Amino acid sequence: MNSNQTGDEIQRLIDLLAKLPGLGPRSGRRAALHLIKKRDLLLEPLARAMAEVADKVTECAVCGAVDTRDPCSICCDPERKADAICVVEEAGDLWALERTGAFKGRYHVLGGVLSALDGVGPEDLRIPELAQRASDPAITEIVLALNATVDGQTTAYYIADALEGCNVSVSGLAQGVPVGGELDYLDDGTISAAFRQRKTF
Fold first, then answer.
1. DSSP H/E element including 199
2. Which domains does the chain have, with CATH numbers?
3. Is 0.85 topped by the overall pTM?
4. What's the average model confidence in pLDDT over 68-91?
């Protein structure tokens, strides 16, 4: 659909939707049309929700998760175990783990993984903040729940080395996570099994 076949506002909506993961121009048009047809039920509530999130979303100063409060809901939860930290690449991985209920401690979001190809080094990630948290005597275990990709595993080994001086056990997810697999796309049972059978680095 060309911009001259529809109003500029609708075309802008299509273009923005097409930039979302898993969507392209054709899917963006279908999504836009569906939203417009369900204007009262979907489009207007979605617009309000997006405006609220854009206004309130923030990054937790403690763990790096995204939330509408700082510290985030998990860091503020007194029911969470205070002696274990699970390290993830992105907030989506945290959400995937939370769906399973397999982990009851706190989290640490790195903001990516080491990648020589993309020019991402240790200084670009929240590794120093993790080392600082791990130096707390109350922390006894760090679980490295990073994606089973080359970059993810390289990052895991780098972190394990960086935490060597801390008095913590460092473990990683075990079987059930396929090589090249990303946590956000795995089913809950697979993630839970990997957590139960985590291995020490």
1. strand 199-200
2. 3-56 (1.10.8.420), 66-200 (3.40.1360.10)
3. no
4. 96
